[in-house]
Amino acid sequence: MSQNVVEIADLYYKYPDGTPALNGINLTIKEGESIAIVGHNGAGKSTMLKHLNGILIGHGKIHIAGLPLNKKNLRTIRNYVGMVFQNPDDQLFCPTVYDDVAFGLINMEMEEQEIRKRVKKTLEHVGLQGFEKRAAHHLSFGQKKRVALATILSMLPKLLVFDEPTSNLDPRNEKAFLDLVKSLPSTKIIVSHDLPILFQLCERFIVISGGKIVEDTTRDNFIVNKKLIKEHGLDYEFKCAYCEHFHNSPT
Ligand SMILES: Nc1ncnc2c1ncn2[C@@H]1O[C@H](COP(=O)(O)OP(=O)(O)OP(=O)(O)O)[C@@H](O)[C@H]1O
Ligand SMILES: [Mg+2]
After folding, report:
1. Is ligand 1 within 6 A of the CB of residue 44?
2. The CATH number of 4-244 is which of 3.40.50.300, 2.60.120.10, 3.30.200.210, 3.10.20.740?
3. CB 6 within 8 A of CB 151
4. Which among 23, 47, 87, 194 is the best mutation to test ligand 1's pocket, defined by most ligand atoms within 8 Å of the CB?
5. On the chain, which terminus has fewer CB atoms closer than 10 Å, C or N?
6. Residue ID of nearest Cα to ligand 1 atom 29
7. Report field, pTM of the whole predicted structure over 0.90
8. Average pLDDT, integer, range 16-23
9. Cβ pair 212, 25 in contact under 8 A
10. Would the CB of 200 count as within 6 Å of ligand 1?
11. Which residue puts its alpha carbon closest to atom 3 of ligand 1?
């Protein structure tokens, strides 16, 4: 039987200014699952993700790979959970792209030669070969998103957590992201508003609203539930209409 990678029980969180963001989250994720987390802006998605590796600490119980999330286990859990943030500026803080991607590997006490190889290979994976000496803060937003992705992928985490991974990527890089993520064996949690991407990557769909899980269902049930999709501001039919027009117009 596969292991529970994430167990969240009765999780509540209020930001220091008093804003309630999580209002009783209960969630179990098994090893190897690919989970989509959807919901309107401000629903609590990013806040929930930030609890998975102790960036935020709310009231409730969290276990990662069977370990209670507490001070003692924090280092082990942070090696296990690779989190790609919504905003790449929150993830990149070194003078060069190389240093940013190598940072986690140095912390894992990997040998320098192996680090060089791993950084090179990961930058190739995200389409940024040769970017080692560039300063991340001088790159475009989409390029920064890909460096941020590389900082996490390089560590080969067992649980990969992505917060809006394809926002600001051009379609070619979106496709590259899709292919890359499909090829990874990790358990995956992906927060996104991009349903076509999620439909290709995830088998289970969780809808958050007002800091609570209001639906937890299979991809097949979610896709056909147009009412639910509309209710949570995820309707993308207007985009499809234009795509059809584009594909059907003479070249
Ligand atoms: N640093 C903060 N201080 C106070 N309130 C915050 C803070 N960050 C988020 N919030 C509030 O917490 C709630 C949940 O926000 P969160 O960022 O988790 O939403 P989200 O579902 O990720 O939205 P989005 O789709 O826009 O990324 C919102 O009401 C938001 O305004
Ligand atoms: Mg968010």
Report:
1. yes
2. 3.40.50.300
3. no
4. 47
5. C
6. 42
7. yes
8. 97
9. yes
10. no
11. 15
Structure tokens at 79: 């090696």
Domain boundaries, the chain: 4-244
Q: What is the residue-wise DSSP string for 19-34?
A: -EEEEEEEEEEETT-E
User: 140 CA distance to ligand 2 centroid (A)?
Assistant: 20
| Digit-coded pLDDT (tens) for 146-166 | 999 999 999 999 999 999 999
Q: In this structure, what token pair is assigned to residue 224?
A: 């056909």
199 or 239: which carries more pLDDT confidence?
199
Q: Name the H helices within 7-140.
A: 45-49, 74-80, 97-107, 112-125
The residue type at 146:
R
Give yes or no for residue 19 CB within 6 A of ligand 1. yes
Mean local confidence (pLDDT), 4-8: 97
Q: Is 151 in the pocket of ligand 1 (CB under 6 A)?
A: no
Model confidence pLDDT, tens digit, residues 188-234 = 999 999 999 999 999 999 999 999 999 999 999 999 998 999 888 88
- Decide: 20 in ligand 1 pocket, CB within 6 A: no
